[in-house]
């Protein structure tokens, strides 16, 4: 990579939560977060920034499939309704929300941000 480049990795908001049946996935994303911080230190002298985004509930095929594993039938809502109710903004994320965060981090305006894990989740809470 040339000096002054940008690296964006992908983590997940589930890393600190430890949800059931997602141990391996959460562990792999935790490793991404460690790599993000360490690569930022290693590559910083070359002007390369390294960050990770941590999406929350986003309207994708993967998220819709995973919604079932977090669903509480006692809540009286569909899995998707339950996820929507878990965000203050009252909606699921959209792929373009994730893309916008990445675009910012790769821009000149994002050039002073490095070694960070950026939640792109609408403050999604489990």
Mind explaining what this structure looks like?
By secondary structure, the chain is α/β, with parallel strands linked by helices. It has a single domain, classed as NAD(P)-binding Rossmann-like Domain (Rossmann fold). It contains 4 helices and 3 strands, in the order E-H-E-H-H-H-E. A 3-stranded parallel sheet has the order 1-2-3, sandwiched between helices. Strand 1 (6-10), helix 1 and strand 2 (49-55) form a beta-alpha-beta unit. The protein starts with 5 loop residues before the first strand and ends in a 6-residue tail after the last strand.
Provide a concise account of the structure shown.
Helix content is 40%, strand content 13%. The protein has 126 residues and is an alpha/beta fold.
Average per-residue pLDDT, rounded, comes to 87
Count of separate DSSP helical elements? 4
Helix content: 25-40%
Radius of gyration: 16 Å
The CATH topology is given as: Rossmann fold
Order of strands across the biggest sheet? 1-2-3
**CATH top-level class:** Alpha Beta
Q: Can you identify the CATH superfamily?
A: NAD(P)-binding Rossmann-like Domain
Which residues form runs of ≥5 with pLDDT under 50? none
